[in-house]
Amino acid sequence: MRVNELQANVERMVSDLLIKIEKSVPDRGNFPMVYSEFKITDSEMCLTDVMLKLQALPEHLPNHETDRWLELVGYKLPVPFKATRVMLKGTKQEVIRYLKQPESLEKILSAIPQLNDNLIDV
């Protein structure tokens, strides 16, 4: 996948997720996972899909009422293999601030090839 195409897909994914977070995620308590994703069209990558998702912390963890997990997931479909990376653990507002920073796009872009490498031998 060309770098410009990958970057455009990541920018759209982040923008879409920001809208969903601002609309659907409460500041406190549990909520259904929100996500945004795109397909990888580059035949040289083993990843087929990339997802950025936000979910509530499990109840056994400290600060589960207010903190959320922002996770990047790479899928290798049709086999059900995936590689994941937690990009941030924080409050809704911390996640929004993180996603609006240009550095977050760079971190996501650099994590995608690493997720791909994790699935090459699977």
Question: What's the gist of this structure?
Answer:
This protein is α+β, with helices and mostly antiparallel strands and 122 residues long. The chain contains three helices and four strands.
Fold and architecture overview:
The chain has 122 residues and is an alpha+beta fold. It has three helices and four strands, in the order αββββαα. It is globular.
Characteristics:
alpha+beta; four-stranded antiparallel beta sheet; 3 helices; 4 strands
Question: Strands, helices and their partners?
Answer:
Layout: H1 3-24, E1 34-39, E2 49-56, E3 68-76, E4 81-90, H2 92-100, H3 102-119
Antiparallel strand pairs: 1-2, 2-3, 3-4
Helix pairs in contact: 1-2
Q: Going across the major beta sheet, what is the strand order?
A: 1-2-3-4
Ranges where pLDDT stays below 50 over 5 or more residues in a row are none
- The counted number of beta strands is 4
Mean pLDDT: 94
Overall geometric form: globular
The class by helix and strand makeup works out as alpha+beta
Please trace the helix and strand order, writing H or E for each element.
HEEEEHH
| Largest sheet geometry | 4 strands, antiparallel
Q: Could you tell me how far the N terminus lies from the C terminus, measured between alpha carbons in angstroms?
A: 20 Å
Query: What number of structural domains do the residues give?
Result: 1
| Rg, Cα atoms, Å | 14 Å
Helix content: 40-55%
- In terms of DSSP E residues, the strand content is 25-35%
The number of helical elements comes to 3
